[in-house]
TrEMBL record:
Residues 24-349 form the Peptidase C14 caspase domain. GO terms for cellular component: cytoplasm. Pfam families: Peptidase_C14. GO terms for molecular function: cysteine-type endopeptidase activity. The lineage of its organism: Eukaryota, Fungi, Dikarya, Basidiomycota, Agaricomycotina. This is Metacaspase-1.
Length: 411
């Protein structure tokens, strides 16, 4: 038997699970509300939020109760003033990310959750499909933001084959915060589209398959039995048929095939004057019809609150995508990827229908108030940010490689 000795200070590498330890489960949860007292002032480039602190607290409970994470293996960064609380500054976040994936081996599970603000900046090296880089804003302000390339380098690139990372981004412009290649092929069909900005990506790419069936969406009606247990009753909404009678197949009269035969002599001739070229390869690997592949790298998926060109909203109580995600996973901790994304999409769609209704009511109130102000010779009020009345928030699932939609959620 050949004995391989390692030099002092050098750790052996393992292609599979390490024989000397059990697979790890570690999590890093970051919630930033950007609240400051009067002396410190506001955080640069960030309006205060209501929900992130509660989001990470509830996510921590979910990981412990449903996925067997040990409390000591979950690190929480929130911008509170409690003694000893580590603040989610740029430096602390990057250090915590490095600690999260340090000594990662095949079979390990890592979980990263970010709830806060994200901004977009112009991309200068043509590495982004939409020409924009996405950046998360730490508690020490926009000037210290962490770009998507940097986030991927620290969180993803060092992971070995067979390790697992799930990342949750509850923020605006969050779909490609890890720059994962596959996202179109992971989208569920939904019976609505966002209008988007004029000539924006959401308009150019929102091609609807008019005769597609939406996957049946399960609705869970819950009655709380005690503080730790929920009794659920599951019902199913019938499948929604998008296709209208107006979109039935049309019978189209075609020309005879003689046109094709006239061209054959040109194409079949070696000296054909018609230049034949191969179609150019796409710069971006995900076409929306990617086939699942065998893992040859780490298993990485990212669930984002919205597309890169969309905003993410929270309600008056601070509830947002994280709340919807947790409610779904409490009922079924291991849904398929398809069911999970379909259910999140429908939950957020209902939230936006209410948001649109409230926005219209708000605009009516502003108009009435301004009529009175103008009649009194006063200036009309102008809201700082126009209320959202048209668009929806489309949650996105991105992955390192194509994944099968029936894959079970297992963070």
């Amino acid at each position: 038997m050949k004995i391989i000795r390692y030099r002092p200070g050098r750790r052996p590498e393992y292609w599979g699970d390490a024989p000397d330890r059990q697979a790890k489960k570690k999590a890093l949860l970051v919630g930033i509300q950007y609240e400051r007292d009067e002396e410190d002032g506001d955080v640069e480039g960030a309006n205060a939020l209501r929900g992130p602190h509660r989001d990470v607290a509830e996510m921590r409970e979910l990981l412990i109760d449903c996925y067997s994470y040990a409390p000591e293996d979950i690190v929480v960064l929130v911008d509170t003033y409690e003694p000893g609380q580590l603040q989610p500054t740029r430096e602390n976040m990057l250090r915590a990310i490095e600690n999260l994936v340090e000594d990662a081996r095949s079979g390990d599970h890592f979980f990263f959750h970010y709830a806060g603000h994200t901004v977009q900046v112009q991309n200068t090296n043509f590495s982004e499909e939409d020409g924009m880089d996405e950046c998360i804003i730490p508690s020490d302000g926009e000037a210290r933001m962490i770009m998507d390339n940097e986030l991927r380098r620290h969180l993803v690139d060092s992971l070995p084959i067979g390790s697992n990372l799930v990342a949750i981004f509850d923020s605006c412009h969050s779909a490609s915060l890890l720059d994962l290649h596959h996202f179109r092929c992971n989208r569920p069909y939904v019976p609505w589209i966002s209008k988007g900005k004029r000539r924006s990506d959401s308009q150019w790419n929102a091609n609807v398959r008019r005769q597609a069936m939406v996957v049946s969406r399960h609705v869970y009606q819950s009655n709380r039995v005690n503080p730790s247990r929920v009794k659920s009753r599951r019902t199913s909404i019938d499948q929604i048929l998008i296709a209208s009678k107006d979109y039935k197949k049309l019978s189209v009269r075609t020309q005879s095939l003689s046109f094709k035969s006239e061209l054959e002599k040109w194409y079949d001739s070696p000296s054909s004057p018609i230049q034949r070229t191969m179609s150019p390869d796409s710069m971006w690997p995900c076409t929306g019809y990617c086939e699942p592949s065998s893992p040859h790298e780490a298993n990485v998926i990212s669930v984002a609150a919205c597309k890169d060109d969309q905003l993410s909203w929270e309600d008056s109580d601070g509830a947002s995508m994280t709340k919807a995600l947790i409610n779904i996973l409490k009922t079924d901790p291991h849904p398929t990827i398809r069911d999970l994304m379909t259910n999140i999409s429908h939950d957020l769609h209902q939230f936006y229908l209410r948001l649109h209704d409230h926005a219209r009511g708000y605009r009516r109130e502003v108009r009435e108030i301004n009529k009175q102000r103008i009649a009194q010779g006063r200036r009309p009020l102008k809201p700082n940010e126009p209320p959202e009345m048209d668009n929806f928030q489309d949650p996105q699932l991105s992955s390192h490689r194509p994944i099968h939609p029936e894959t079970r959620w297992d963070p």
